[in-house]
Amino acid sequence: MVTIYDIAKRAGVSPATVSRVLNGYPDVSLKTRAKVQKITQELGYQPSAMARGLATKRSMTIGAFVKVGPDDGLRHPVFQEVLTAFQHVVGEKGYDVLFFSQNGPALQREGYEAVARYRNVDGLLVLGMPRTDPGVIALSTCGIPCMSIDLDLIGPRAGYVTSDNVGGAIQAVEFLVQHGHRAIAFIGDKFATKPGHDRLIGFQRAVQEFRLPFRPDWVLDGDFTEIGGYQAVSRLLEMSELPTAIFCASDLMAIGAMRAIRDRGLRVGEDISVIGFDDIRPASMVTPGLTTIRQRSEELGRRAAQALLRMIEEPTALPSVITVATELVVRETVRPVVPRG
């Protein structure tokens, strides 16, 4: 097994100098740094997490609080992409990710911060958690470096990354308006999440901007799930007056909405247009293909990881608030309005 002593001997420097290069200390000349790094690669040196942790006084572990549920957490297509990108970035720096069980007795009894401190994590990732949970809110002031995704935690050592949910929602409505739609329904969640809240805000702003009629009875809760979208649109289709288009605040709800429209004997696109949000993989596989607003899930994960590592490794680094742009993806579920009756 290659050690730092082997590298030091080959480079003609002290083991302490090798250690300082490997741990990123700035007080090493560029020439010496380059030489040590070259020899490290040639010898295939792999530092152990334990050794690096002792040197840096870190556990080399990042704790993750991720919402759990039938369609959440590791099962959710967006969360999968976010977490994969996040783990890739922190893994390259030698960090492991520890997922906390939200059903465990310790968390239920002691709370989020206590569990994180017991595990001695260097930083925290919070994903998909409700904005109203007091324990989650308290993480913003606990002092442990923390980055949340699509949750506006902000504090001395806490920041967040989010998609442009408001702008994306406005873009969705604008696209519908361009196809002649003025009677537009909205399917969202219970508004306990930042994406659900912001996409509703974007929908409402777009309704005002394009001078569309606003129907409170056409704003329904689909809970960000496929079955929730199906049930919400099934209720919508029982009304005496129907919209010509439906904007669903997630693709899972949009896919459920499409099934509800078909079960009613109507045609998706021809009779009622549907637009989603997320651009999960099934959006391009359903028939007809789902027009949607793409959020860059992998970019969310990468940016969150980079910002969190900066706070962990630079104690004076300020927390980041990052907004990632969205993109319209046109497929077949939005068609021009056909006059009824």
**Class from helix and strand fractions:** alpha/beta
Computed CA radius of gyration, to the nearest angstrom: 24 Å
The count of domains is: 3
Number of helices: 13
Instruction: Calculate the terminal CA-CA distance, rounded to whole Å.
Output: 79 Å
Q: Which spans have pLDDT < 50 for at least 5 consecutive residues?
A: none
According to CATH, what is the class of the largest domain? Alpha Beta
The CATH superfamily of the largest domain turns out to be Response regulator
The helix content is 40-55%
Element string (H = helix, E = strand): HHHHEHEHHEHEEHEHEHEHEEHEE
CATH level-two architecture of the largest domain: 3-Layer(aba) Sandwich
The biggest sheet amounts to: 6 strands, parallel
Strand content: 15-25%
Shape: elongated
Organism: Alicyclobacillus cellulosilyticus
Protein name: LacI family transcriptional regulator
GO molecular function: DNA-binding transcription factor activity; transcription cis-regulatory region binding
Domain HTH lacI-type: 2-56
Tags for this model:
434 Repressor (Amino-terminal Domain); 341 residues; 16% strand; Rossmann fold; 13 helices; 42% helix; six-stranded parallel sheet; alpha/beta
Can I get a quick summary?
This protein has 341 residues and is of the alpha/beta class. Helix content is 42%, strand content 16%. Strand 8, helix 12 and strand 9 form a beta-alpha-beta unit.
